[in-house]
């Protein structure tokens, strides 16, 4: 691994990254709705179980039908995503397969088994099992989907905060030393909570949007009104929790990925008592000249808020891009020391006594191993404009959703949400649906672009983890996947729209 990256086609790295990004973006179009609808349909069926009112049963069946359409599409893209680790990122898979493979294996064996078992009962067991057993199957289907997301996010979090592992120079692999540290790291818990809660917001927006469409068409109004009541409560609660978990996630990023935070804020020179930028004009089309520490025009900031966000101290020190690049000199030296020591360790004629010394050097410097491959410190800086604007899109839309849900809760529970006078609100609810996905994808853009150039934070740059394959083959499969995923998305939207226009199959034909 210490030499292979030198012979890899440079364009293959870009195409491998593009293909993985393409697959992940499409996959994440399906997953949030699965997790969000799982919660809402569970609540609605619980209402049926507690009241015995057949209305709630038919409402649950309707939302479960839409859940099933989306669920099937998400599985297809998720399987392809996992295979790409072996095809396009074989050096990465070899280096950390013992660790990265464990949560993926648990996800495949336990979560998929759990989902596939109970989803069948949920869809086909209405007349075959008791109400209580069916309710349990519905909740366990949602729990299985959430459990699946947990292990995927554990794997992703480990890439951004590698813990619970020890490097073995004899096998050239990172080996797991503590499964609990990997599975229960603070970074993984924060990412899981924030991601799943954001998916609940997508589910709430979807349910409200579909229900408002029915109100505009004057169809299934009782279903629409009651679903809006459930969706709006879920939306308010999820939005508040998303803000809390997002704040804690930002704090964790400041501790373990300070360059990501600096890119999110376009902060070039740090200091004490740093303000949080609300808005600024950052050129979106080119990497700024951060070395010149240029001031952004029209910058509006909240005084000392960034310091409090990053350190929980209003006067806390927050490093900027230039500060972190100065610190990287020592990390690059240590990374090169680790690579040099590893090369000598791997030589057959190295004496055992010398190997013991070299192993100590390797282990001491392994946390900065990836820096040894850095030739230009500019490679350590992620693309600032994308991180800066994606973060503000996520936060801005998240705030908008909270205000929207609060208004809808008030109107649905205290007023007549079905009133024709609220036609503009109904139309706005439909318009917010694509914005929900934009908000969700923006969060992932911040998380993944912000950690560049690292496949594993500080330990492996992307250009070292890629497979030694020709760019033409990756390019070909990129366009094949683009056509396939676009077709899947178009098919899902078509089927969903048809099911929504058709409405409930029975019991709610008002």
Keywords:
8 strands, two-stranded antiparallel sheet, disordered N terminus, globular, mainly alpha, 510 residues
Please outline the helices and strands.
Elements: H1 10-51, H2 54-88, H3 90-124, H4 131-160, E1 165-168, E2 173-176, H5 179-183, H6 186-217, H7 221-256, H8 258-265, E3 271-272, E4 276-279, E5 300-302, H9 305-311, E6 317-318, H10 321-346, H11 352-365, H12 384-414, H13 423-449, E7 454-456, E8 460-461, H14 462-465, H15 471-502
Antiparallel strand pairs: 1-2, 3-6, 4-5, 7-8
Structure description:
The protein has 510 residues and is mainly alpha-helical. Helix content is 71%, strand content 5%. It contains 15 helices and 8 strands. The strands form 4 sheets. The chain has a two-stranded antiparallel ribbon with strand order 1-2. Helix 1 packs parallel to helix 15.
Summarize the structure.
This protein is mainly α and 510 residues long. The chain has helices at residues 10-51, 54-88, 90-124, 131-160, 179-183, 186-217, 221-256, 258-265, 305-311, 321-346, 352-365, 384-414, 423-449, 462-465, 471-502, and strands at residues 165-168, 173-176, 271-272, 276-279, 300-302, 317-318, 454-456, 460-461.
